[in-house]
């Protein structure tokens, strides 16, 4: 596949020249930014500068799972807030242009860290701790956003949020399953039988984790932008914390087989806090009761397992652009097993 599949340069350049009011965009390059397993993200560069274009994946996509209008709305609303975001530049809702709605935002220059830090970056444990602390603090600041003042009072329907989310993701699983998974079905049932009472609703990111942030290129411990807002809404803030913990593998957690299989090895480096320390900092910053947190981590495991199933289905259909999808299905069963273990109190 060509790197520009989904955003042909011959279409993108002239369109941006008109939409952004600068003819220099006509002479641009379009590059797929690697690492995306869901929406497609392109770096557009040329004499006018650099921007980022985001669009849904190719082929059939699950309903409401890749909402570009939602992402554009939230980053525009958070501009100037205590939550760092790119600048929202343009939203196109006409699928005739690229085959799907898309939006354009500013390019934020800094490392987006997935498997390893850039050479010479955050080499000291204290710098890694600063990165983790800022990650938690930004999440706490997001959950403290005044919804009405930000113009987001109609952004979601927080009443019944957890039950609705569980129905939604169960429906996503039904729509994308390529093979039977009795353990995943059982996890969905167990979650439905043990729904906790939600705290007061907040803005929820929906996929908050380290590699959905842009770090400052010179100051470890400062986040320049939070990315990937297409699943954001108003709802239960602990859903964000629970999912963050699914991805997190602190040094003390490294001996847990399920943590090793489902966590990010990067956060196991010396200096990074473990999950308990992440929770303690979040509780200190927000004052929220975290006694029901195992349910939220289990739900995060379920949600991520469904995302994996969807990626596997699209990859098999030849609808994924980029590399790195081989073997991703191997993460599904460990996620489900960890979800059951979290609910049972075995972790």
Describe this structure in words.
This protein is of the alpha+beta class and about 350 residues long. It has two domains: about 10-105, Phosphorylase Kinase, domain 1 (2-Layer Sandwich); about 125-345, Alpha-Beta Complex (Aminoglycoside 3'-phosphotransferase, Chain: A, domain 2). Helices cover about 40% and strands about 10% of the residues. The protein contains eleven helices and nine strands. It has helices spanning about 10-20, 70-75, 95-100, 125-140, 160-175, 180-190, 240-245, 255-260, 275-285, 295-315, 330-345, and strands spanning about 30, 40-45, 50-55, 90, 100-105, 200-205, 215, 225, 235. The strands form three sheets. A five-stranded antiparallel beta sheet has the order 1-2-3-5-4, with helices on both faces. Strands 6-9 form a two-stranded antiparallel ribbon. Helix 5 (about 160-175) runs parallel beside helix 10, helix 6 (about 180-190) runs parallel beside helix 11 (about 330-345) and helix 10 (about 295-315) runs antiparallel to helix 11 (about 330-345). The chain is globular, with a radius of gyration of 20 Å. The model has no long low-confidence stretch (mean pLDDT about 90).
Let me know the CATH homologous superfamily of the largest domain: Aminoglycoside phosphotransferase (APH), C-terminal lobe
Output mean pLDDT: 88
Lateral strand order in the biggest sheet: 1-2-3-5-4
What's the architecture of the largest domain in CATH terms? Answer: Alpha-Beta Complex
How does the major sheet shape up?
Answer: 5 strands, antiparallel
Q: How many structural domains are formed by the residues? A: 2
Distance between the termini: 42 Å
% residues in beta strands: 5-15%
